[in-house]
Amino acid sequence: MSEFDELLELLSGHVPEAHRERLSRYGARVLEVNRKFNLTGAKDAAEFAPHIIDSVSIAEYVEQSLIDIGSGGGLPGIPLAIVTGVPVTMVESTTKKARFLESLLAEFELQGAVVAQRAEVAAHDADLREHFHTGTARAVSSAPTVAELLLPFIQSGGRAVLQRGTMDEREYQALEDASLVLGGRVERVVPQLPEIGEAGIVRQVVIVEKTGHTQPRFPRRVGIPEKRPLCF
Predict the structure, then answer these.
(1) Is 22 a member of any domain?
(2) What's the pLDDT tens digit per position in 202-221?
(3) What are phi and psi of 157, to 5 degrees?
(4) What is the pTM of this model?
(5) Which of 19, 116, 134, 216 has the fewest CB atoms within 10 Å, i.e. the most exposed one?
(6) CA-to-CA distance for 120 and 136, rounded, in angstroms?
(7) Residue 140 scores a pLDDT above 80
(8) 65 within domain boundaries
(9) What percent of the chain has pLDDT over 90?
(10) For the segment 115-135, what is each residue's pLDDT rounded down to a tens digit?
């Protein structure tokens, strides 16, 4: 069985039927290129299918325009663009990955663009800053770090959608405080079904509403948001 056919089977019942074929083609394409250079730790269809399902699970929160930072192999930006039809801008600083993302936009005839820069730099571009209705990031950094990198891209009234594992009280409080500093507020936390995330790992979606403008000094220079997370 080809990886495409295997993905078709694995995604059945977990993603919208109308988009299952395109999502499976996307997954097969990532796995094909992943053999040439690293895009994902997933090595086969069984390992990659949960990442597609996880990405699509937040489609209901995506509106009008999407910024996805640290896109890597296109997660969650490409699956979300396929399912929602919104234009997606993906921020990916690694040149090979950025070129691959551009090829995906063309291959799947998706509206969007790729910005081959670090998020700390791209967020100070006037054409990108506070331009988007929705923002996503599957970064492994702390929640306050992700908020600092993402919220400067979001316009007032928009939202950042953070997919997180379990956060302890200290990290959650730091996220709340950092969001206020960055011109936002934590609106709600939504638990995800266990089968969406990796086996045995509790997942949640944190919705951060953008309530005002982000001060020009944020995000701080490259590397600082991760080394010294706001309020954490």
Answers:
(1) no
(2) 579 999 999 999 999 999 99
(3) 95, -10
(4) 0.94
(5) 216
(6) 15
(7) no
(8) yes
(9) 90
(10) 999 999 999 999 999 999 999
Asked if residue 51 is part of any domain, the answer here is no
Distance CA 55, CA 163 (A): 9
Q: List, for residues 165-186, the tens digit of each pLDDT value.
A: 888 999 999 999 999 999 999 9
Number of compact structural domains in the chain: 1
Candidates 47, 39, 52; CA nearest to 11 is 52
**Tokens encoding 192:** 């995800």
Rounded-to-integer distance, Cα 80 and Cα 63, Å: 10
Residue ranges making up the domain that contains 176: 59-227
CATH number at residue 202: 3.40.50.150
CA 131-151-155 angle, 5° bins: 30
CA-based nearest residue to 143, from 231, 22, 19: 231
Total count of residues recorded for the chain: 232
Q: Sort residue 170 into left (φ over 0), alpha (ψ -120 to 50) or beta.
A: alpha
Domain for residue 44, yes or no?
no
Q: CA–CA separation, 198 vs 149, rounded Å?
A: 25
Nearest to 185 by CA among 206, 157, 164, 210: 210
